[in-house]
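Appendix B, example 12.
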Amino acid sequence: MAVAHKSKIEFEIGLDENKIPETIHWSATDGGVTKDASKATLISVWDSKEKETLYLPLWTKKMPVDEMKVFFHQTLLQMADTFERATNDEKMSATMRDFCEYFAEKLELEDKSKKN
């Protein structure tokens, strides 16, 4: 099957003299995003030849620890949702969500769903 459309996602990382991220900007051609600022990103790529995940975690010096905890919690929840869509494994997805609840409880993260 021929590729019908191409889409591009780009990250631009501004580094200090020690190659520590100062700024992160990202663009997504199909999403209407152009150089939006971010404080952190987690990028995972599957290397099918080596059968392993290549992982690139980046965060700026301005990323507060409390926001990093929320970022990880939300990322874990999204991974559980993605895992369920990709595998149809409802039982393991529920187990992952249980862990996310435990994670949030132990970090004393505010449950925004109960805020209203």
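Residues 1-61 form one domain. The first strand starts at residue 9 and ends at 15.
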